[in-house]
Write a structure and sequence with these properties.
alpha+beta
Length: 114
């Protein structure tokens, strides 16, 4: 299985929590997980995916490798989001998405009505 990781943006803590609750109430499980951290660090996101991956049946090592690869290849983007998180203040989180590529593709297709 192939995985993808990307930083989506900065969100107020309460907004992210409410969104997560809505996703939990949906009956259909997806192969996509949204993560949030107060820090824009590789260690913080690796810890998050290490917690989520076993519950989803994902290959933890491959998911971690995906996050590390993103971190190594997107330094400009990471710096941008790190600054946006700092500018937003302590009541905000940096939100990222991790998932298997087929599930993410299916989610996008369902949004487009295909």
């Amino acid at each position: 299985m192939n995985y993808t990781f990307e930083i989506l943006g900065v969100s107020p803590t309460l907004t992210f929590f409410n969104q997560q609750q809505e996703l939990l109430q949906q009956q259909q499980p997806s192969g996509v997980e949204y993560l949030a951290n107060r820090k824009c660090t590789l260690d913080a996101f690796v810890a998050s995916v290490e917690t989520v991956s076993p519950n989803r049946g994902w290959d933890v090592d491959r998911v971690v490798d995906t996050v590390i690869s993103f971190w190594m290849n997107n330094s400009d983007s990471i710096q941008y989001w790190k600054h946006r998180l700092q500018d937003a203040g302590s009541e905000n989180l940096l939100v990222a998405r991790v998932g298997d590529i087929k599930s993410l593709q299916a989610a996008f297709e369902s949004l487009l009505g295909e």
